[in-house]
Write a structure and sequence with these properties.
heterodimer, A: 131 residues, mainly alpha, Arc Repressor Mutant, subunit A, 2 domains, 2 strands, 6% strand, elongated, B: 232 residues, alpha/beta, six-stranded mixed sheet, four-stranded antiparallel sheet, globular
């Protein structure tokens, strides 16, 4: 199953995002070995050169490292992974708040709505009361 | 990385009709290149010149530093837009023909791909559907260990599921030192596997760029850009 990639953003950027997400979600644990460039390119159904470029970028960022002759591994620096996770979460929250603002929610309204969503059991379901 | 193909000042006229006009082109090894252009833009003319099937009116073409001829044909594996195979033959017969004809033909690779696509080597070509015939031809072409693969419309007749497999075949079977030129209209299906695209229009190269550069600079896919540039 090829990875789902958008058609309007650079492919290597999307590969970076996808591998980052896999690291943050724990699909790749710290110290795990990554598949080879070729295998990853096949999995994603992308050009091996593009995959290579994405991995080089991840390496520059310090998220993966190359051990000569034995391949590429996920960083064991868990503090760095945590940091990245926080940054990603912040990005997602910003996007969410932007969307909420567009439909007239203040940050506080959005936070309240989130709180209700996070504890749904205590809120009576209004949609069914109408029936 | 080295230069595989170098075209300089290439012109091709069919009588009064200009098919290619002053085409300058360099193809490096290790790249997958999409040759994209509307109908009648000169794609197949360019491909046929690279394969020695047409001679240019003027200009030069060098493949690995040598002019088109026996040496270039040895290193180029070509999938034409029309078949040249004998339809009465069985797939296994065609394979043994290719094995004796091309020294770089890998018979095992061919049988391997046939079985993955559930094609019976004992079947005759004429008994096959259009899509299956296309698959067989692509398998034959990709089973050579060539330096340059030139595929003229390789996925036009096959269903989307088989298309994915064929792209997979292309990705697995070329090694890093080889290059592939793919001419197609089905841009959206292949753009993720391309390094570079060449837009050709009225016999001239209109744009050379990497897929990611197009997406970065234009914020749109190659497919969308193509539709915009060549809007009718």
């Amino acid at each position: 199953m090829p990875w789902e990639l958008d058609s309007d953003r650079p492919i290597f950027q999307q590969i970076i995002d996808k591998i980052q997400t896999d690291i943050l979600s724990g699909r790749y644990a710290p110290g795990d070995k990554l598949p080879s460039v070729r295998e990853l390119a096949m999995m994603a159904a992308v050009n091996p050169n593009t995959m290579q470029k994405a991995l080089a970028e991840l390496e520059r960022a310090g998220l993966v490292y190359t051990q000569r002759t034995s391949g590429r591994f996920i960083t064991e620096d868990t503090a760095m992974i945590e940091l990245l996770k926080e940054r990603k979460a912040k990005e997602l929250i910003d996007t969410f708040l932007e969307g909420m603002q567009r439909i007239g929610y203040s940050a506080q309204d959005a936070a309240d709505a989130l709180k209700r969503k996070a504890a749904p059991a205590q809120i009576p379901d209004c949609s069914q009361a109408d029936n | 990385m080295s230069t595989l193909v170098e075209c300089t000042g290439l012109n091709k006229n069919y009588g009064k009709v200009t098919a290619l006009h002053d085409v300058n082109l360099t193809i490096e090894s290790g790249h997958i290149i999409g040759l994209l252009g509307p109908n009648g833009s000169g794609k197949t003319t360019l491909i046929k010149i690279l394969n020695g099937l047409l001679t240019p009116t003027s200009g030069t073409v060098l493949v690995k530093g040598k002019p088109i001829g026996v040496d270039s044909k040895k290193v180029i594996s070509y999938l034409p837009d029309h078949t040249y195979l004998n339809m009465n033959q069985r797939v296994s017969e065609v394979i043994s023909f290719f094995t004796t004809f091309y020294e770089d033909f890998d018979e095992r690779r061919a049988y391997d791909m046939l079985s993955k696509l559930s094609i019976n080597p004992k079947d005759r070509l004429k008994a096959m559907s259009k899509g299956t015939k296309e698959k067989v031809q692509l398998i034959l072409v990709m089973s050579r260990r060539a330096d340059l693969y030139i595929l003229d419309e390789p996925i036009a007749g096959v269903d989307p599921a088989a298309r994915d497999y064929i792209l997979n075949v292309i990705l697995t079977n070329y090694d890093a030192s080889a290059s592939i030129i793919i001419s197609t209209h089905l841009i959206a299906d292949i753009e993720n596997v391309l390094d570079e695209v060449l837009f050709i229009q009225n016999g001239q190269i209109r744009l050379t760029s990497s897929v990611d550069a197009i997406r970065e600079e234009q914020g749109k896919s190659v497919d969308a850009l193509f539709r915009e540039v060549f809007r009718c």
